[in-house]
């Protein structure tokens, strides 16, 4: 071969090597990016699963709490009705206006005190329930925030 042909062959071989190196590097970067994307998708899927589980746990707690509150409200209503019925029967046995007003005053005070006590009890229960309902979600938030932070790194 002549010199010019050798030079052309060498240049072609060098260009092919450079071309192969560039595409090899691009291919390696694409492979790494695909693997990282697959890990991110897997991690996000796992995060979503955990988030749904936290919401389900929170919903179960809320449902049990509503059931308990409903039962307590029904019990309070029953007790209040029974007290009112007993007081009404007592009104029928009153012999003087003084006794009537005394009995009415006692019933009103008792009903008011009972309503205030029940209201306080319900308020305390609701505050406790709110904390219990929020706990699975709050715990999950901490876990998810840490995992997302690690994903971003």
List the helices and strands and how they pair.
Blueprint: H1 3-92, H2 97-152
Structure description:
There is one protein chain. The chain has 153 residues and is mainly α. The protein has one domain (3-152). It contains 2 helices and no strands. The chain has helices spanning 3-92, 97-152. The longest helix is centred in the first third of the chain and has 90 residues, at 3-92. The mean pLDDT is 86.
Q: What is this entry, summarized?
A:
The chain is mostly helical. It contains two helices and no strands. α1 runs antiparallel to α2 (97-152).
Observed structural traits:
mainly alpha; single chain; about 150 residues
Distance between the termini: 56 Å
Which sheet architecture does the biggest sheet show?
Answer: none
The parts where pLDDT drops under 50 for at least 5 residues are none
Counting helices, strands and paired strands, the structural category is mainly alpha
DSSP strand (E) fraction? under 5%
Give the helix level as a range of percent.
over 70%
- The strand count comes to 0
SSE string, helices as H and strands as E: HH
- Overall shape: it is rod-shaped
Radius of gyration: 38 Å
